[in-house]
Write a structure and sequence with these properties.
CATH architecture: Alpha-Beta Barrel
Strand content: 15-25%
Distance between the termini: 41 Å
Number of strands: 10
Helix content: 40-55%
Structural class: alpha/beta
Shape: globular
CATH topology: TIM Barrel
CATH class: Alpha Beta
Number of domains: 1
Number of helices: 10
CATH superfamily: Queuine tRNA-ribosyltransferase-like
Strand order of the largest sheet: 4-8-7-6-5
Order of helices and strands: EEEEHEHEHHEHEHEEHHHH
Radius of gyration: 18 Å
Length: about 250
Amino acid sequence: MIKRFEIKSHDGPGRVGKVDDNITPKIFFKDELKIAPNQGSAHNIDREIAEFNVKETLKLAQENVDDCDIVVIQGSKYIDLRIECLKKLEEIGYNGFIIANGDALLTNPRELVDLIISLKKEARKTSYFIFPFTELSFMPILTYMGIDGFLADSANYYSYLKVLQTPTKSYDLNSYPIYENISQKDLEKKNLENMEFVIKEIHAHMKNRSLRNLVEERSGTTPQNISTLKILDKNYMDYLLEYTQIF
């Protein structure tokens, strides 16, 4: 059931790849994925609970490896547990990974950067990563760090919260009534359309080797975006330069 992943090119650590016949970075829909059952948990919990959840996730992944092609990396806020989970899931035979607690990570830039870079450094080159519940303004920098796809469920998640997602900003429609009396279904459609636009935008910049320009442009949209890029540049310049082309 495992899908083959090939890297076609780099723009910094960001990768243009192919999963079967689909070009990444891409939007992944849950109905096209076969996600192994896992033991989910909150991001900020006691280590003992996180260890138990990793153990249960690995057990369920082993039991379902013949039927599933995607697994969730658990471990909450403990990076060593996340890495342990990743490596053991790779040993079981998986190469497609969803990073759990994406919504919580977006509000903690240092943890977000440290976790993604740590996972990327430890992962096999044939492994690909999917980020759930992302805000659209974060998609360029997440791609730049090496994320290969995003769950379409983000569109539904934010529509349920009555939040309109645009490439540069998230609007709480209760405070900013840009669309009055819009249904959740129509809001989800708009969020998904904007998500698809950002993916096209990312692809165009990666084709022109200008993804970093897009990242810097979007870095000013929220304080979390600004912090994420500053932490990335300050702490992981060697990682960024490893795949950055020299003109």
